[in-house]
Amino acid sequence: MLATIGDLVEDIVARLSRDPRKGTDTPTKIQRRRGGSAANVAALARAIGTPSRFVGQVGDDPLGQRLIDDLTQLGVDARVSRSGVTGSIIVLVDSGGERTFLTDRGAALNLSSLDDDILKGVEVLHVPLYSVLTGPLARTTFRLLGDAIDAEVMISLDLSSVAAIEEFGPAELLALVEHLKPVAVFGNQSELEALAVEPGRAIAGSTVTIVKAGPDPTTVLVADRPAIAVRVRPVEEVSDTTGAGDGFAAGYLTAIMAGSSPRTSVEAGHRLAALVLASPGASLPDSFEPAPDRTLETDR
Hints:
The chain is of the alpha/beta class.
């Protein structure tokens, strides 16, 4: 089973037809849907047949209930506390496709309790950096990470954003990776530059460092080994970039859990990310049917 801990929020996506003009109207297409990196990874992993568990908190409100229902209908084991007001993220998508996020994480930051059996059956615990930044959620996530180390559960970490790295502290984050020894660290070149990691070098302590570059080749970095560039197959029509990185993480970790090599796991991540790109939001096409071995054609 793949477990995640972090945000379950509503994404309010506003697609701008042109740059907004201050003090007047701008025609916009607005969509509301489930969001939160941790929740997306759990949902997408389950969508391809991998048992998954999400740990987090939403508000004691109708929106929170709808978000929980969305996960449970997908088959995710949703261990969700209820208190406060459910968070929302406004995603502004300009005419060129560039995204700007206005975040109110709300109740997600207040997770303070864990079920005693939260790691039962878990093979990998996936943690976005957002989950260790602040509030009770950060303290709870660190507690769960400690339990995962004691239970010999594999850990993966998503660097999430340059802003998140700057808030946590680059030196402190490098020390955390050394301590956690994650099976995978996911990031892009800007995020590794924010950590002052030498180009072409894996982050010390990580088994594998995965450097994503959008449509350009993904780089697989393992300590004391040559870098591996894995080509990204073109996506014919991109519907939405939201959740593509979460899809990549879900596909990669599913393949690693099935015994695949890092290169083949990256290819599995690419395939799942491509499916997400072709669908609105962090979802898969209605026609998608998971492979019976849950691996998206891995090399096991």
